[in-house]
Amino acid sequence: MNAPHKPATFEVDTCRLDDQGRYSNRKIAGERQSPSVFLVLLLPGFSQLCLSSLIDPLRLANALSGQSLFHWCLMSLDGKSVESASGISVEVSGNSLRHQKAMALDPHAAVLICAGEGVEQQRCPELRAFLRRAHRADLPLYALGTATWLLADAGLLGEARCTIHWGKMAALSETFYDLAIEDALFVRDGKIVTCAGDLAAFDLAVALVQERCGIELARSICQHVIADRWRDGASCQSVPAGLRYGNTGKKLLRIIKLMEKHIEDPLPLEEIAARVCLSRRQIERLFERHLSTTPRRHYTAIKLGKARQLIELTDMPVTDVAIACGFVSPSYFSKSFKDHFGTLPSQMKCC
Fold this sequence. Notes:
The chain is α/β, with parallel strands linked by helices. The chain is 44% helix and 16% strand.
């Protein structure tokens, strides 16, 4: 008779506070291992806030522990410096995708892509090949800011859950229909990690430190940068309706959330009223009192807001945008769009 199967364990280099309050390395069996080496690919127009929010917590982990726990190497497409969205150029280590193509990828490294606006135009065969090669090598892939778009373009997301900066969320979901996109600061699904970028990169970095080195060092990093805490990855990145609409009632906020959830398939006002246990007239009075508008106009404004995002950020035809935003006809959509924004959707697409 075979001996009972024992679950596999692995060892992770971690650090903990010793009796004197210093961080010390020891091996802890069974803990999740975070990457310790990052190959950071910077794309033109990347967010410098995002890069610093990721790297500085790792730097502080090294400094506060007195150990070289994390390492990073900055790369670019051509090995030259990369200009960020703020106009500041960042020097890289001379590494380029071509250089990496000629070398074996470090099996202990993770590949991290940091991108900004215009990521749709940064897709290229060379980048796809590099990302697919890293994926075949079973390296963790981290996408920050808008870089999730590049993983989707390379066909690496599959059924993996993912997130992206809220400004690209609608466009990503319409371009890649089958993605499991979540409104979250960061999402980890296997060896695919996607992050909304900017300050969410800080939350991701501190979470990595906590996994590898424990909560004491993670708290010390927050204390050092005058942050009271780091947020959970599952926290929503979108602004809660309560903050957007000020001191409104709970019923009205619930109605607005229903509208935002049902854009492509708009709910009749009668169905919304039934869901929140109010009459049509009560809903109309809520909108008039708190927002000085009607429910229909507010619902249309929500749909037009999404439509503008899709027009500015995707190549979708105007007709498809109209359908995706719940308009019954392209002509009615164009008229509503012009009334709201002062220009036709076709004219905005040409700008």
